[in-house]
Specification:
Length: 382
């Protein structure tokens, strides 16, 4: 079986360099690997007729072959230039991705040992989007436990972005059709999180657990082109053998893979059009501040300006407190609610505790208080 890095590199080449629509590219990856066409150089060393046997379209086969030719020649020129200078080219993150274990460890989120009484005293200052992110990423521990943390962060960020765009449209801050409305997510499976459907991308070969198979037949079928699915939207199945997922960034996909002239290079040539776990984590880590001090002693102590490191540590601790409160909320309901029902209730819980901001455009991005006792008060009684 091809490694996750090989599959993602081939998908990246097909969608970014060869401009193959994502659903088509995903449906052809397995056939290309079976034919030994696993890289741009392998495709270039082949011929158009061989490639046509996979894509069943001469124009598309020529498109892929020409892209492979350009990529291979560019790589050869770079290597020759580096050799002449007596230096080896640096390897990028995408060429040398971390192991699944190392990636998941690098994304760990803070936790708190504070007891319930202590949590109930905590008030945080934030805006609404990162609170949605915290609610969603914690929810997924209970509704999609088969997903690694990297996937939960990506999927949760997809929910935040979809929600933010909908709000921006309702306020008149965004105009025009979304990438979803224009069909950029067509043919991709969907996952429902906090009542919102998002398009997802299967992370083929991502073995983050030794005792779990990395690909399920149900999801492979879901990734076939839309016309082979009788017009139905395919829901991702949640079970212990379901593969890891990324949340697809359809707006970025439209920007990077839309009609372009040959003189306009793609702005995202090194990554797939996904919501990255690293960005989602960074957003969480910086978004939860402490309220201003009110007592005389606290004001005097806080008059000394905190270092950037001190501020970052305080925000990290605050995130740990919030996530602990959310864990207590979900843990109280998970044994008695189905995963679907838990998902349905999560949005109403968020609405109950979200910061109060001004109505309309004036409140866009506004910050307010999140009182952890309100989150704890939503727990199941008895």
């Amino acid at each position: 079986m091809a490694s996750a890095a090989e599959v993602q590199a081939l998908l990246r080449f097909l969608t970014q360099d060869a401009k193959v629509p994502l659903p088509t590219a995903m449906s052809k990856v397995k056939e290309l690997h079976k034919a030994g066409l696993t890289s741009p150089s392998a495709l270039f060393q082949s011929d158009i007729q061989t490639i046509k046997l996979v894509f069943l379209d001469e124009k598309l086969a020529k498109q892929v072959f020409n892209a492979a030719k350009r990529t291979s020649k560019k790589r050869t020129s770079t290597e020759e230039a580096a050799g002449g200078a007596g230096k080896r080219p640096k390897k990028s993150f995408t060429e040398n991705p971390p192991t699944p274990t190392a990636l998941e460890e690098s994304l760990s989120l803070p936790c708190s040992t504070q007891n319930e009484d202590g949590l109930a005293q905590i008030i945080l200052i934030t805006n609404r989007a990162p609170l949605v992110l915290a609610f969603a990423v914690t929810l997924l521990k209970y509704t999609m436990p088969e997903q690694p943390l990297s996937s939960r962060l990506s999927l949760a960020q997809a929910v935040v972005s979809a929600n933010s765009r909908s709000k921006a449209v309702s306020l008149g801050l965004e105009k025009g059709r979304s990438a979803e409305d224009e069909g950029w997510g067509s043919g991709q499976p969907v996952a429902k999180i906090m009542g919102r459907e998002i398009r997802v991308l299967t992370r083929w070969g991502y073995a983050w657990k030794e005792d779990v198979k990395v690909l399920s037949a149900a999801v492979v079928k879901a990734e076939e082109p839309a016309e082979e699915q009788d017009g139905l939207v395919v829901q991702v199945e949640h079970n212990d053998q379901a593969p890891a997922l990324w949340g697809l960034d359809l707006e970025a996909l439209r920007s990077s893979n839309g009609p372009q002239t040959s003189a306009t290079p793609s702005s995202t040539t090194s990554n797939l059009s996904i919501y990255t776990a690293q960005s989602a984590r960074a957003y969480l880590m910086k978004s939860f501040s402490s309220p201003p001090k009110t007592s005389a002693n606290d004001i005097k102590a806080s008059s000394r300006k905190k270092s950037a490191t001190g501020i970052a540590m305080e925000k990290e601790e605050n995130l740990g407190l919030l996530l602990s409160a959310l864990d207590l909320l979900y843990t109280s309901w998970a044994p008695v609610l189905s995963k679907d029902e838990l998902d349905r209730r999560a949005w109403s819980w968020y609405v109950h505790v979200r910061p109060e901001v001004q109505n309309g455009v004036a409140g866009w991005g506004g910050k307010g208080e999140v009182k952890l006792f309100e989150i704890l008060g939503l727990r199941r009684k008895g």
